[in-house]
Amino acid sequence: MATVNAGILGTGHAYPEGILTNADLEKMVETSDEWITSRTGIKQRRKAAPGEYTSLFAVRAARQAIERARIDPSDIDLLICATVTPDQILPSTGCLIQAELGANNAAAFDLAAACSGFLYGLTLANTMVRCGQSRLALVIGAEVLTQYVDYTDRSTCVIFGDGAGAAILGAVEEGRGILASRIRSDGRFAEQLYAPGGGTRLGTTPETIAQGLHFYKMKGNELFKVAVRSMADVSREVLEEAGVRAEDVALFIPHQANQRITDAVAGKLDVDPERIYSNIAMHGNTSSASIPIALDECVEAGRVKEGDYVLLASFGGGVTWGGVLIRW
Ligand code: ACO
């Protein structure tokens, strides 16, 4: 069967108006702007207000991507919502977004791969478009992580923020679009970032809630090393597969987990620091939304030009990681 190349036809992003600054956090836990800035690079993060939920931001981001791709929602035949903070257990947030958008001809579902969710989604959508199973795919990364953050735990509450990013994927000319992509996971590290309660194992009971088992727990310093190694390795793999040199990458967007992780990954690859995008200061870690938000910010700022090599790399809970190389 003849295959086509899949590329990004439009992007969008959205986030809550509410801002939580380091100064706000100083009043909540024993921390300081100096510690947060020097250890993470984060200055502020967006925080959804009570009553604001994941699909609200996903729909806003998706509408922007649809408009910029100049398509009709009814033309979308695949809708993937990467999230670990769904609106509700059933149905999928993807189906709720589908209804809001009027994307009535799409197969819609959720994908849980934490911070790697968007790259997992891109990889699946790429395969579906390439083999002719999908003509236009909408891939979203959307999270309201702050609802799962324990604001008495200083090791996690300073990190996470809320938001959504989206991309429309469709056929592009030969030599353009997604040139290579890899997704990976290793469940042996599952308990380095996890929420023990709220599922079928422990359920949601007054006891699990009183013990805060629905909140995210993270062994940050152990994840740090795995994150750096995995993102650097997978970046090299996709570059090698596509036969592209790191120095030819015009824009590198790593998952925005921590500025020190970004710097360490950059140090392992031969990418000019000026070509590495970082918005961690403004958004914190928005998990699956981090890469599509950053990508859309770059598109809006004119930082991506036709023909550019754009490298995306992610790492997240699971643990999961992935790399995608695009020729814009
Ligand atoms: N303010 C002040 N002190 C703090 C804070 C805080 N907010 N948080 C932790 N500390 C203290 C610790 O208690 C510890 O004190 P001690 O030495 O007295 O015990 C000290 O700072 C050092 O703690 P570490 O955890 O070793 O600090 P580290 O430099 O590793 O930074 C961080 C922590 C920012 C979490 C970092 O490890 C990190 O970013 N890790 C990676 C996270 C990641 O990539 N997660 C996966 C993706 S996210 C997803 O999938 C949703």
Quick recap of the structure?
With 328 residues, the protein is an alpha/beta fold.
Description of the molecule:
The protein has 328 residues and is α/β, with parallel strands linked by helices. It folds into 2 domains: 5-174, 3-Layer(aba) Sandwich (Peroxisomal Thiolase, Chain A, domain 1), CATH 3.40.47; 179-327, Thiolase/Chalcone synthase (Peroxisomal Thiolase, Chain A, domain 1). It has helices at 22-26, 33-40, 54-69, 93-101, 117-130, 154-157, 206-210, 220-242, 259-268, 280-283, 290-300, and strands spanning 5-14, 19-21, 44-46, 78-82, 107-111, 136-143, 163-172, 177-185, 193-194, 217-218, 251-254, 309-316, 320-327. α3 (54-69) crosses α4 (93-101) and α8 runs parallel beside α9. The protein binds acetyl coenzyme *A. The site of acetyl coenzyme *A has 25 residues, from α2, α6, α8 and β12.
What brief labels describe this structure?
Peroxisomal Thiolase, Chain A, domain 1; single chain; 2 domains; binds acetyl coenzyme *A; 328 residues
Overall outline:
globular
Measured between the Cα atoms of the first and last residue, the distance is 25 Å
**pLDDT average, as an integer?**
96
Tell me the number of strands: 13
Compressed to H and E, one letter per element, the order equals EEHHEHEHEHEHEEEHEHEHHHEE
